[in-house]
Design a protein that fits this description.
The protein has two helices and no strands. It is mainly alpha-helical. It has one domain. The termini are far apart.
Length: 70
């Protein structure tokens, strides 16, 4: 017994399994890393870390307004 509707069913199934939404354009990577604001923020953060790491002086304890004797 031959199936007369075989090709029609294949076409229907292929059509049902295909994606319904077709992207209008391919996805692009963000240019955020290339922006000058991002680069200067990274440079400032690295400079801040470098200054704190290589700082020779310990953290200065604020002096009190009056003399404390124990």
């Amino acid at each position: 017994m031959t199936d007369c509707q075989l090709h029609d069913r294949h076409d229907w199934l292929r059509d049902e399994q295909s994606p319904r939404v077709v992207p209008s354009e391919p996805a692009r990577q963000s240019n955020f890393e290339k922006s000058p604001i991002f680069r200067w923020t990274v440079v400032a953060a690295l400079l801040f870390v470098a200054v704190n790491v290589f700082q020779d002086d310990p953290v200065v304890v604020p002096t009190t307004a009056y003399r404390v004797t124990v």
